[in-house]
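Tokens as discussed.
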């Protein structure tokens, strides 16, 4: 499969999911509703390549990820992924697990904030995609499960043991990863996994409203914020403070910073342009 290139986000046509773009917001829709939107080897790779390509697409300011047909994602397709994996040797298995992990790396590395809008089933790799997003919305019927334990695997898949405890805490993450049980939308919001629970008819509007607020902000600075949230996991406080001093100095050279000042002086609301 050819690596995704997004020269014009209004004309990008992926093969394994739906794509739409308007007003700076790209929407990715996993679109196998008859199977609750499972992933295949090909869709994993195309999603990874798409998020990698977004690093170079300034027109896209924010990304919304959804699933078609009332469910988010049922994980890896049992017949198209799980079955074939049983017959692979260690080299083939490691190639697969590294590729799936690369999807998370690509989502975290792209400067655009990613919003997952979750309803219904959100399990396995679907739960990981939600976890790897920057913001998460859910409907009351959302059931989220990191169910690797239930298929005889470790919970440490695609960065779950690194990221999930940072979102909901070590004890709660341990419970979900050891038991593979579903986390309800109410639990997810209470634990900090979901930013908000909304009714199904409002999910798309709420996600795009949130995306619009992000795209109207200083998007270059937002990319810096996302980068710092990533890289400061592994450094001391002193190092983090120095990194943030340098990052903020870079942002202070942008026109958006000057626009904010002049708008404040004029008692107006700033109009950011991302430069």
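Sequence:
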């Amino acid at each position: 499969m050819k690596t995704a290139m997004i020269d014009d986000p209004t004309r990008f046509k992926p093969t394994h999911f739906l794509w739409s773009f308007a007003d700076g917001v790209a929407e990715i829709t996993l679109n196998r509703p008859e199977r609750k939107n499972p992933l295949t080897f090909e869709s994993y790779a195309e999603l990874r390549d798409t998020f990698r390509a977004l690093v170079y697409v300034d027109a896209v300011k924010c990304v919304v990820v959804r699933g078609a047909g009332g469910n988010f994602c049922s994980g890896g397709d049992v017949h198209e992924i799980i079955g074939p994996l049983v017959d692979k040797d260690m080299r083939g298995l490691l190639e697969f697990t590294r590729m799936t992990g690369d999807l998370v790396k690509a989502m975290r590395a792209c400067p655009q904030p990613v919003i997952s809008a979750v309803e219904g089933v959100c399990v396995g790799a679907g739960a990981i995609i939600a976890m790897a997003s920057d913001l998460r919305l859910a409907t009351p019927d959302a059931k989220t499960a990191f169910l690797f334990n239930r298929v005889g695997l470790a919970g440490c898949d695609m960065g779950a043991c690194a990221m999930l405890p940072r979102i909901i805490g070590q004890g709660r993450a341990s419970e979900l990863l050891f038991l593979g049980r579903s986390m309800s939308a109410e639990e997810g919001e209470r634990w900090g996994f979901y930013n908000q629970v909304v009714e199904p008819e409002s999910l798309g509007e709420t996600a795009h409203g949130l995306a619009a607020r992000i795209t109207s902000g200083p998007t270059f600075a937002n990319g810096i914020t996302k980068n710092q949230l990533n890289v400061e996991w592994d450094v001391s406080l002193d190092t983090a403070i120095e990194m943030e001093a340098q990052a903020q100095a870079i942002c202070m050279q942008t026109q958006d910073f000057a626009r904010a000042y002049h708008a404040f002086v004029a008692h107006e609301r700033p109009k950011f342009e991302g430069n």
